[in-house]
Design a protein that fits this description.
Blueprint (H helix, E strand, L loop, with lengths): L4 E5 L2 E5 L6 H12 L4 H20 L3 H16 L1
Length: about 80
């Protein structure tokens, strides 16, 4: 039974596992990734959630929806 190292910052969740090899490494990585998550990521997550119903209704394929959301993330975060 292996548990990932998890941290939550609003709707953004970071989980890291080393497959049981090193819980200490998983925790270090989790903390490193979590320290890079800011308010802009939380705000972006809310905005992307708000746009999901429109995308599901108007973009027919998985690829169109994927590209749409990837472009939004790239525009917002560079």
């Amino acid at each position: 039974f292996i548990l990932p190292a998890v941290t939550r910052q609003g709707t953004v969740v970071v989980a890291v596992s080393t497959g049981g090899a090193s819980p200490a490494l998983a925790q270090w990585l989790r903390d490193s990734f979590a320290s890079q998550i800011g308010e802009e990521h939380e705000s972006l997550a809310h905005e992307l959630r708000r746009r999901r119903p429109w995308a599901k209704q108007n973009l027919r394929t998985y690829e169109e929806r994927r590209d749409y959301f990837r472009n939004l993330v790239t525009e917002a975060l560079g």
